[in-house]
Amino acid sequence: MVLDSFSKGRNAWRTRVSVILCSAIIVGLLAGCGDSPSKEDASAKQSSSNASTTEVAPAGQQSAAPSERTITDELGNEVKLPAEVKSVFAPNMEDSLVALGVSPVAQWSNGKLGHFYLQDQLKDVPKIDHSGGLPGPEVLMAHNPDLIVLHAESYAKNGAYENYAKIAPTYVFKNAAGDIEKSLITLGDLLGKSNEAEQAVQAYKQKVSEAKDKLSSVVGDKKVAIIRFAPRGVSLMGGEYFCGYALHQDLGLGMSKLVENKTAANISLEILPELDADFIFVINAYDQGTERMTEMMASDIWKSMPAVKNGHVYEVNNQHWLGSGLIAYEKIIDDTVRLLTSK
User: Fold this and answer.
1) Which keywords does this chain's UniProt record carry (predicted)?
2) Per-residue pLDDT tens digits of the chain, which is 343 residues long
3) Is 61 part of any domain?
């Protein structure tokens, strides 16, 4: 009886211990399940974290893809620009294109002669002769431009704009040469090169400022004239275009009364005594004005001029002095400073 009671008590004790142990194991398992997420849960949480990071990332860190846009040119034409301009034709604006780091599909030329001072950069660009006017649409189609830029209103006349606009979007300036800095900024916007345009303009302004400082003590309020000798005649260049703009508007050098508020004025031996200039720059246009230049310079009237007597006549490089763009203007300014401050 004692043994039987002892056996029954031992069995009851074992039962109670087993229950306690099982309860502990179950609690532990439940706790472990609560602390360790499944692989699916972890993956879902990671994806949610990544999505949140993408949503809060600053927009400026991602560059938006370019898109087509419609603008209005200086003649009021609506121009639908492609998302990215890859091939441009802009005759007589090659200087500005090179300044922006852009190579056109074709370049302007007079016969076989292009812009001399740009040929290192444009040596592989085909030339299109403009001596007889703008090339026909069939000529331009062979070069497959996706943007055409005409530098002057005159280029868009007589149906030229309508014909060109059928080939590619065509933007027309009223007169790009009248304000090179402004037209360069516009061209930069058209081509997606606004930063390059701003940098080029700022560099040019710095050069102009430095040149003015160097010239102020030499030139002062004295006047400068630019005489262009060409096969068709001799002209005094005003301050509205090309080298005249660079000297008279940008550098602020005084000009003769003969060309005040004028693009240019014809010069002959009869008018020559009226030329009021202390310094004279001479341009032999495309090396084709030699005969007229020789004839005028051999005359007594020429030799009697104060600028000639004082040795203040300088023949300059027609290649960039007849150029239109900041690259040409910088070369013109370098020449002007060098020649006028050398004595």
Assistant:
1) Coiled coil, Signal, Transport
2) 333 433 344 444 344 434 333 343 333 333 343 333 443 343 433 333 333 333 333 444 455 556 899 999 999 999 999 999 999 999 999 999 999 999 999 999 988 888 999 999 999 999 999 988 889 999 999 999 999 999 999 999 999 999 999 999 999 999 999 999 999 999 999 999 999 999 999 999 999 999 999 999 999 999 999 999 998 899 999 999 999 999 999 999 999 999 998 999 999 999 999 999 999 999 999 889 999 999 999 999 999 999 999 999 999 999 999 999 999 999 999 999 999 998 6
3) no
Q: What is the pTM of this model?
A: 0.80
Question: In angstroms, rounded to a whole number, what is the distance separating the alpha carbons of residues 149 and 153?
Answer: 11
Neighbouring C-beta atoms of residue 299, cutoff 10 Å: 11
Q: Are 318 and 285 in contact (CB under 8 A)?
A: yes
**CB-side neighbour CA atoms (13 Å) of 145:** 27
Do residues 97 and 115 touch, judged by C-beta distance below 8 A? no
- Please check whether residues 114 and 229 belong to one and the same domain: no
How many helices (H) and strands (E) the chain has is answered by 14, 12
Are 254 and 275 contacting, i.e. CB atoms less than 8 angstroms apart?
A: no
Q: What count of other Cβ atoms lies within 10 Å of the Cβ of residue 60? A: 6
Q: Pick from 254, 243, 251, 242: which is nearest to 215 by CA? A: 251
Co-location of 211 and 97 in the same domain? no
Tokens of 207: 């050069």
Tokens for 186, please give them.
């516009």
- Residue 156 belongs to domain spanning: 69-195
